[in-house]
Amino acid sequence: MSGLCSPRPGGALYDPSVGARVLLVEPNRFVRAGIRAELSRNGAEIVAEASSADEAVAAAAEHRPDVVLVDLEAGTEVCDRLTARLPETPIIVLAEPGDETHAAAAIDSGARGYLLKDAADLDLAAAVERVLSGERVLDPRAAAAVIDSRQSAVDPKLSRQELKVLRLVAEGLTNPEIGSRLHLSRHTVKEYLSHAMRKLEAGNRIEAVRKATELGLIGGAPRPASGLAYNRTGEPARSSDLKVTPLKIDQLRAVRSRHDADQSR
Question: How far is 114 from 94, CA to CA, in rounded Å?
Fold first, then answer.
């Protein structure tokens, strides 16, 4: 590495004659000294150090750093406040092993990097250089935690019975037909379907099936590229089944009419 370079204001990405200007936010002064020494060896300039959110915000306003390095111990509040004050300044969070579960909150607060201190290949200088070039830098464990948190946030927790009902709805069955298949009353089927629609934030049964299919919650149902495909026979879908033809639209309308008739009984 030839050294860390600071973005040139209003022009090219790097000015090779100017080192990256770093604001270091770390409550422990001994840890700050170690980080300062490592970054300085790679050409960076530590323009200010802070041990709290208030100090960090004040230092950022005064020195206008190119990048901010924040220890998670200082709290994600630092990221929120710095992003509000300097939205274009990249932030890298340093965390202890086991703190990867906080990565999503840090990213949502404006951080562009999240590194764990015990990583065998931890390279702060490289991380600074990468965020300055516009990249996001995440420890693989932190990245996995972010994906898991996003997945759990978007995947509604449907019960086994609700999923069974949705799979049969996807086949085009009405509530009485589903009840007969699952040995449930028509009213119980309606209740399961209503719960599933509420969890999926769907306005009707067709939208509920579409959303559940897109989320991979009912993998046994045909997964259309666009629109909702029905396989009324229950057999594995063929490529021709993945097209919503005028005939299938008529079938969908017929199923909806039968459903409306069921509800009016």
Answer: 6
